[in-house]
Amino acid sequence: MSILDSKIPKGPLEDKWSNYKNNINLVNPANKRNIDVIVIGTGLAGGSAAATLAELGYNVKTFCYQDSPRRAHSIAAQGGINASKNYQGDGDSNFRLFYDTVKGGDYRSREGNVYRLAEVSGNIIDQCVAQGVPFAREYGGMLDNRSFGGVLVSRTFYAKGQTGQQLLLGAYSAMNRQINRGKIQAFNRHEMMDVVLVDGKARGIIARDMLTGAIERHSAHAVVLASGGYGNVFYLSTNAMGSNVMAAWRAHRRGAFFANPCYTQIHPTCIPVSGDHQSKLTLMSESLRNDGRIWVPKTKEDAEAIRAGNKKPTDLVEDERDYYLERRYPAFGNLVPRDVASRAAKERCDAGFGVNKTGEAVYLDFASAIERYGKEEAFTAGHKNPSKEEIIKLGKDVVESKYGNLFQMYEKIVDQNPYKTPMMIYPAVHYTMGGLWVDYNLQTTIPGCYATGEANFSDHGANRLGASALMQGLADGYFVLPYTIGDYLAQDISTGKIPTDTSEFDAAEKEVSDKINRLMNAGGQHSVDFYHKKLGKIMWNKCGMSRNAVDLKEAINEIAELREDFWKNVKIPGSADTKNAELEKAGRVADFLELGELFAKDALHREESCGGHFREEHQTPDGEALRDDENFKYAAAWEYTGKPSDAILHKEELIFENIELKTRSYK
I want to staple 356 with a disulfide (CB 3.0 to 4.6 A). Which of 142, 346, 361, 559 is the partner? Predict the structure, then answer.
C-alpha cells in the first residue's frame, strides 16, 4: 500500500487554481500543431474537451461507440446544471457551492478539486449562453434558476426538462466546427479496446470498428478517457443500455488505479420496475421535487387497499397521507440529497407502505403545486375569486411550462395522467461517484492518461448533488483539462509522431484479438444478457441501497463463480469480422464481471456508512449514515493484480482545512 499524492497546489483555497495556472508549463501555438490527443467518449466531458483542445491547436481524434456524438448519454440529463452566479440574490457564492458539494458528498471529496469546480462553474453558463443554449428565463429576461436537493439556494440553470440535450448540442456544434477545420478526426461507431503504453506512458489505443470488425491502432501523445460511469453493472439502471466501463476498466488493467467503486448513487425519483423482462429504468428529473410532494399512506390498510386496486391515491385526504420527507427533515423537506431520499423511500416500502403492486413505490404528487400556482396566476390576472376549475387549469399550465415533457414521458410509459394522479416513483441506480483515480491535473496513475467527467472519481465524494454531473463534465472539458494537459504535453514538443508499428502496439493488438477469439469460441449455451441479468441481481440484492458484511462476502464469491461460468458457457452468434452487437455486449459484460467483484471488495473494506455507501452495521439509532472519520477519511484507490478480489489498496488521505467535519443533518 502507498499514500497517493493528489498534487493539490499549496496556498489559500481561493488562490490554488489561479496560482497553479500562473506556474504551469505552456505549449506555444506552433508546437500544438505537432501534438496529438485521443479523446474517448463524446458526451459533455469528452465533447467539450475535444472541441477546446482542437480550438487551442492540438490535433484531436475522438472515439465513440454511438453513430453520432449527439447520442451520448449526457443527452438524458433533464433537470439542470449548477453554477454559483447568485442571480436570485439568495446568498449563493463559490464557497457555498463548494461547501454544499463537500457536505453533500458526506465529506469524502477533495477540497481543492471541489473549490475549483465551484470557481469555474459561472464560466460554464457564460460559455453555453454564447453557444446558444436556450436556458429558461424569468419574467425580466434574466436566466432562471431552480433548487435541487441538498441546498438552500436556487443555483440550477435549466432548459425545461432537456438540459443535457441542449448542452450537448452546444458541445457538439463546437466539435463540428473543429471537424470542419480538420482539427478533429471523428471515429464514430468505434469502441476502445485497450490503452497502449510505451515506456510507461499512454501513447495510443487499440480500437474496434464496430461496423466492419476491423481492429485498428491509433497513436497520440496523450489519451483522455471521458467514457462515463459504470452504473450498468447493476443491469437495471437509468443509464443508456450501451453505457459501459470498458475504457476505464481496460486502463485500470494497464495500471490506472480505480477509486471508490462502491460509491454508487441511487436516484430517488425513477419510474418503478414493472417486470422481469425490463431492460432499463427511466429517470424522472430531481427538479420535480421542487414542486412535487412525496408521500405514502399513513396506514398499512390504505396502502394494501391501493396495492389491491380497491382505492386510488386521490381517495386519501391530507390527514391520511404521510409526507415522510417533510416529517423527518423539516429544514429541507422534499429537497434532501438523493441518498437520504432514496433510503427514506426504501424504509417506508420495506415497512409495508409501498403503493404499487410490488410494494416498491411511493407517490410524487403535484396537486398542491397546481393549486398554488393556479391561485397565484389568477390573482395576478385580477381574478380575486376564481373557481376551482379555473385554478386547476391555470396551475396546470404553469406546471406544464416547467415540466411538460417530463409529464408527457411519464404518461407515455405508465399510461397515467400525472396532472390528475400522483406519479409513482422508486429509487434506482443512476450515477457512479467512483471511477479512475486522478490527481489535481485529472491525470490517472498512468502518465499521459487522463480521465474526466463521470469516468473519474474526483469531485463528488460519496454522493453527488443533483445538477452537478453536467457541471463537472463541462468544467473538466472546457476549463480544467485544457490547462492541465498542456503542462504534461510541454515535454513532448520535440517527440514527433508516435509510431504504431512497434512491439507495444503489436502486443496490445494481439491481446485484444485473443480476447475476442476466446469470446467467439466459447461455444456455450447462454446469452450475454443471461449473465448480465444474473450479475445485476447479485449487485442490487447484495451491493445495492444497503450493504452488510455477510452479503458482500457472498457477492464476491458469487461474482467470481459467475465470471468463470461466463467464459466457459457464453454463446455469441455471428462472427467477429462484421457488426456484432452480441460481441460488443460480451466485451462490456466481461469487464462488468470483474468490476462487480472489486465493487464488493471496496464496499466490504469500507467499515462505515457515508453518502450512497450504506453499511447496515454502521448507522445511527434513527437510521442515518454513520461515518468513521478516524479510520476511513481517505479515497480508496485499487491497483489491478489480475484478480479483482486480490487488488492492492492505496490510500489518498483527505485533508480538510476549510470545512469542519461533522455529521450531515438535513433536519
Answer: 361
Q: Round to whole Å and give the CA distance between 298 and 291.
A: 21
CA distance 194 to 249: 9
Query: First CA to last CA across the chain, in angstroms?
Result: 39
Q: Is residue 647 part of a domain?
A: no
Grid coordinates representing 278 are 425490463
The tens digit of pLDDT for each residue in 34-57 reads 999 999 999 999 999 999 999 999
Strand partners, 61: 38, 185
Contact residues for 371 (Cβ-Cβ < 8 A; gap 6+): 391, 392, 395
Residues 280 and 244 reside in one and the same domain: no
- DSSP for 105-168? TTT-S-HHHHHHHHHHHHHHHHHHHHHT----B-TTSSBP-B--TT-SS--EE--TT-HHHHHH
Residue 504 to residues 219, 448, 450, 640: CA-CA distances in angstroms? Answer: 11, 16, 20, 20
- Would you say residue 658 lies in a domain? no
Q: Residue 317 is part of which domain span?
A: 269-426
**In this structure, which amino acid lies at residue 25?**
N
User: What pLDDT does residue 73 have?
Assistant: 96
Average pLDDT over residues 266-295: 92
Report the SS3 class of residue 99: helix
436, part of any domain: no
Q: What is the pLDDT of residues 322-342, one digit of tens each?
A: 999 999 999 999 999 999 999
Asked whether the whole model's pTM tops 0.85, one would answer: yes
- Whether residue 453 sits in one domain with residue 400: no
DSSP per residue over 600-642, as a string? Answer: HHHHHH--S-BTTB-BTTSB-TTS-B---HHHH-EEEEEE--S
Contact 659, 649 (CB under 8 A): no
At residue 476's C-alpha, the angle toward residues 474 and 477, to 5°, is 65
Same domain, 159 and 84: yes
Alpha carbon distances (Å) from 59 to 117, 189, 362, 493: 27, 20, 51, 13
Grid cell listed for 398 = 404553469
CATH number, domain of 61, equals: 3.50.50.60
- Model confidence over 124-156: pLDDT tens digits? 999 999 999 999 998 888 999 999 989 999 999
Q: CB atoms < 10 A from the CB of 318, how many?
A: 9
Please say which residue of 397, 426, 455 terminates a domain: 426
Residue 435 three-state SS = strand
Per-residue b or e along 571-605, where b marks 16 or more CB atoms closer than 10 Å to that residue's CB: ebeeebeeebebbbbbbbbbbbbbbbbbbbbbbbe
Rounded Cα distance, 517 and 206, in Å: 16
> Where does 502-620 have alpha helices with state H?
503-520, 528-543, 549-569, 581-605
Instruction: Please tell me whether residue 64 adopts helix, strand or coil conformation.
Output: strand
Separation between Cα atoms, residue 288 and residue 79, nearest integer Å: 8
Same domain, 415 and 286: yes
State whether 410 and 463 are in the same domain: no
Taking the CA of residue 660 as centre, how many other CA atoms within 13 Å lie in the half-sphere pointing to its CB?
2
Residue 70 annotated in active site: no
Give me the catalytic one of 250, 289, 307, 338: 338
Q: Count structural domains, the chain.
A: 3
Sheet with 190-198, strands from edge to edge, namely 190-198, 201-209, 215-219
Same domain, 138 and 34: yes
Query: Roughly what angle, to the nearest 10 degrees, separates helices 581-605 and 528-543?
Result: 20
- Look at phi and psi of residue 442 and say left if phi exceeds 0, alpha if psi is from -120 to 50, else beta: left
Q: Is the dihedral of CA 455, 461, 464, 468 positive or negative?
A: negative
124 shares its domain with 225? yes
State the Cα–Cα distance between residues 168 and 328, nearest whole angstrom: 38
Q: Is residue 201 part of a domain?
A: yes
